[in-house]
Amino acid sequence: LLIIMKEKLLIINKEQFGSLTDSYKWCYYLRNRYDITFLCFDSGREKMSIDGVVVKYISTKGTRILRAIRFIIAGCMQILCSKSKVIVVYFENCHIFKILFPKTQMLMDIRTLAVLGSEGYRSEFNLGIKKSSMYFDHVSVIAEQVGDSLNLTGSNVHVLPLGSDVISDISKNYDRIKLLYVGTLNGRNVAHTIRGLSDFISKNTSVDITYDIVGN
Question: Which of 130, 142, 161, 183 is most buried, most CB within 10 Å of its CB?
């Protein structure tokens, strides 16, 4: 009987498993190819699961510094014991993993740039992302524009968009406009899009249009 051993993959993400579509879908589509372990904080949300994916939760109790230390130690222990390839979804100073384990193949994923605070804060935050990215073997970005903003170039930089599951492949015609926003409501200036839609409607009164907003 031939037993095929799957390659090991460790995903380190501070966000609780299932709360971000991107990393949840990585696990869903890679589970048959890799033996996946997902390390994250327990944020108190409903726990989700996928067959073939082991989720390890880290407590958020204590101060911010204690939480950070607990998370880093747990990540280091997992890297040390699993001897697997590693994906780190960016968080501040996440390159410490690559400094401590320089021979382990690691990819740093960038889902977003800074969207909150002053221009100075955003520049400083984005500079931190760029500095961390210099330590990793590979870097993935959600869109080319993100890589361009950080001046990330080279064969080790990959575009990994959010994408979508195919719901229908039937061609459709529409006689009305239906707008949909799905995502965080923090720092995205969603209210500006509502004002913009209001301006559009005032100039195009005959257009049949709806706008649905979904977020936490």
Answer: 142
